[in-house]
């Protein structure tokens, strides 16, 4: 089937709909026009289970009376030629109570310029039987401020709470210090210091839900504690090594005289602002200074790595080559539990250190050390993890906003509480035979190239910003011989234009060459992390080919960008870095976890059209509405991880673990308790349009949870659209 899903000159985007059914039915079947233009339209049929038992398999039908015809569809088996009958696919036949399934299609209009018709959706699932079901409300709680000195006056609001039935809601509050309140908003003053959890219970008269918010109340002592700062002349070296420490940059707002006490991590201690210390034996030492003003104190730490020049796995050019790749048991179990997922459950995926707490792990999630220990158990000697916690993280979007902010001193915390502990763990000699691949800060430096109109990115472009964080991370990891750092290089659909490509190479090369070890601090760069851009656009290989008198790259879809795929982009990125002075040993990685683009919409040959946009739309395997659509797309599993797939490319890797969401779909989301900063980005809303191009939809899948959470439906779509087919073993790419 040819692909004509999108990218036409869309006259307007309409979201008019007709709901056929009453609340007594098993499901409401809704026909929505997503977009329309003079001669055609795209539409969605949504089947929402409003009954009180699960739907197992569905079939619906519809018929146009104005000459309109459907031309192609996705996410359902559609048969017939007006009337049409659609039945579920394997993965979307079961609709649990309150959930919905949907499928989409494109069609031509009966007469040019007419409004897209909205036909009645029929089918036994859309009617008959059942009793109205009451749905529980969904509670949401917010508070301002959430920290401060006692007495602390706090305003609470539960106005984000929702009820699917539109029932009137009542609210009762328990403020966590024994007092209670009522109402959608409430005010309470905490008189004593302490950590409190305020809980709101939202009721619709018969069912309830709760939400909570934490409040930290502190005591004002009158004395301002000092601020400890630590640095060292070197971060380590070969044993024996003398390291000079300096805490003289520490300060005290009250100008109290300060005293310094040091713990060097090898059993010895010291005093004074600038001691030197001899480390005789190899190891990883956490050095801590405690700075006191006589009343209060503050601490700062750094990690010193001392190697014994002869030990450790020999550093190699390509850590993926001839390596035993680690399998993350946590991801593997989730994949294996999905129908069809067992076929890929033994594949390496990256472990994301996406917050400080991820390093240590929790009772339900493995920490960094747990993974490395498990790698030893597995006999694996290649472990890949992602460094992803910069202050002002994800500055141009909302889905993966992080725990640290530059304005709140996030850079000091990033260094001391995030990078230092990571460096300490990965430098443990116990892991010296594991090639530890560190993927450095996805999306960060590229945002400084293209998104400086966004205030959070502007801030990240300055002091205590992304450059400083990445420099610190590379400096901390570079001395560790078995760590291989790959810095993010976005993807072709973001930086491929000449006007972005050159500045991006300048910026990223500048950061790398500014590190202590310069080019030696990295093994290379990675493209397409967590994105969907194809590895190769098999039928569009020449961006300058003329079709209808215009170059292919000038089509609506490519918008004059010469790089259509990651192979061409990654290889050119490396060439440009080598031209900047990088050694030819640097290698590229391509994240191929979700850029397969198989399934029924994949073209089988190049188009013969002489109309440029038809030619491109019918030939391209990338079926997104727009190359900027990044959230929960209907992509497919791509090439399985493989070393040396192309010259200059070290490996295909799966950095974004397939099945993990890119961001929450629902604008009325509940906070993620682990990552409360994560928000809803409109690019994750299937009903929204691309934020940069309002003429095209986001293409995001519905019902997705917060970024990083397991998204079963998304995983099923990836399996369904896999390319190469999943039964094909890992191996070198066909081209
Ligand atoms: C999320 C992370 C998550 C990662 C991998 C990112 O988008 O922000 O929390 O670990 O994806 O799924």
From TrEMBL:
It comes from the Bacteria. The keyword Cell inner membrane does not apply. PROSITE patterns: CBM2, CBM2_A, PKD. Residues 663-674 have a biased composition (Acidic residues). Residues 137-224, 226-307 form the PKD domain. This is Glucanase. Residues 1-26 form the signal peptide. Belongs to the glycosyl hydrolase family 6. GO terms for biological process: cellulose catabolic process. Residues 22-129 form the CBM2 domain. It comes from Gynuella sunshinyii YC6258. Residues 686-696 have a biased composition (Polar residues). Pfam families: CBM_2, Glyco_hydro_6, PKD_4. Keywords: Carbohydrate metabolism, Cellulose degradation, Glycosidase, Hydrolase, Polysaccharide degradation, Signal. Residues 657-701 are annotated as: Disordered. GO terms for molecular function: hydrolase activity, hydrolyzing O-glycosyl compounds; polysaccharide binding. Its EC number is 3.2.1.-. It is an enzyme of class 3 (hydrolase). InterPro entries: Beta_cellobiohydrolase, Beta_cellobiohydrolase_sf, CBD2, CBM2/CBM3_carb-bd_dom_sf, CBM2_carb-bd_dom_sf, CBM2_CS, Ig-like_fold, PKD/Chitinase_dom.
